[in-house]
Amino acid sequence: MLIGKDWKIESDALNIMLFHKNRKGNWGNAFGYYSNIKEALHALVDQGVRETALASLEELQAGIDRLHALIDKAVIR
């Protein structure tokens, strides 16, 4: 499943894998391995936040909390 233009999620019998495109535009090694889709999406949110320049820690935490809540609501266990 593609997520935007630079991320994708795949799965095998044991893991959910998160991939990021490298500078050459190829899918490299897995960015991370997760036991469920919710954990993979939370990791993607956390990585996205690290790449942004937000104004304050409060704004940063509020953004993370909003996105995690949306994921939790959307993903059924």
Task: Describe the overall structure.
The chain has helices spanning 37-50, 57-74; strands at residues 2-3, 7-11, 16-21, 27-34. Helix content is 42%, strand content 27%. The protein has two helices and four strands, in the order ββββαα. By secondary structure, it is α+β, with helices and mostly antiparallel strands. It is flat and about 35 Å long. It has one domain. α1 packs antiparallel against α2 (57-74).
In short:
The protein has 77 residues and is an alpha+beta fold. Helix content is 42%, strand content 27%.
Question: Secondary structure elements and their pairing?
Answer:
Elements: E1 2-3, E2 7-11, E3 16-21, E4 27-34, H1 37-50, H2 57-74
Antiparallel strand pairs: 1-2, 2-3, 3-4
Helix pairs in contact: 1-2
